[in-house]
Amino acid sequence: MKKKSLIAALAPLFALLAAASLPALADEYGRHPFYLHALSDLRTAAWKVEHRRPEDGQVSRDEQVVIDEIHAAIGDLQHAAWLDGKPVEWREPTDAWLPREGRLHAAIDLLRKVHSDVAREEDDPRSRPYQQRGLEHVDLALSTAQHAVGDVRRHDLRRE
Questions:
Q1: In whole angstroms, how far apart are CA 4 and each of 15, 67, 109?
Q2: What percent of the chain shows pLDDT beyond 70?
Q3: Of 16, 119, 145, 151, which is the most buried if we count CB atoms within 10 A?
Q4: What pTM value is reported for the model?
Q5: Using one digit for the tens of pLDDT, what is the confidence trace for 70-109?
Q6: Cα(46)–Cα(25) distance, rounded to whole angstroms?
Q7: HEC states along 60-126?
Q8: Distance, CA of 19 to CA of 15 (rounded, Å)
Q9: Residue 56 has what DSSP assignment?
């Protein structure tokens, strides 16, 4: 019987501790965890474009634009995430299993996922300009990467 009364006495304390810990969880994942996912995907996409095989030849202008736009998007989305109270210093591990072949295709897939993650409704009016600029950079990187894939295909057809 003493255990039941002790549990009953401590129940409000446990409820208070649980309520106090909710804001800490909200800061990390909150209502918009998508910035963190998008930043991780952007870093992986940049890695895919930057790490070329020797037989891929020189970096094309398109690839350099993709890299520059990805890094610009990372800067804007980090700022938006910071304003949203997200831990921007947190790094999700890069997917090491991604093959180096088809690196531009993998970057395109990741950029599409980033666009989907970031294009969600933003509640904080301070974050919206950074969110929109980040989306513009992502979209430019995506279209340029698609153009680069087309260039590679045309170049490969000429070799045959």
A1: 16, 62, 56
A2: 61
A3: 145
A4: 0.69
A5: 999 999 999 988 888 887 776 665 544 555 568 888 899 9
A6: 29
A7: CHHHHHHHHHHHHHHHHHHHHHHHCCCCCCCCCCCCCCCCCCCHHHHHHHHHHHHHHHHCCCCCCCC
A8: 6
A9: G
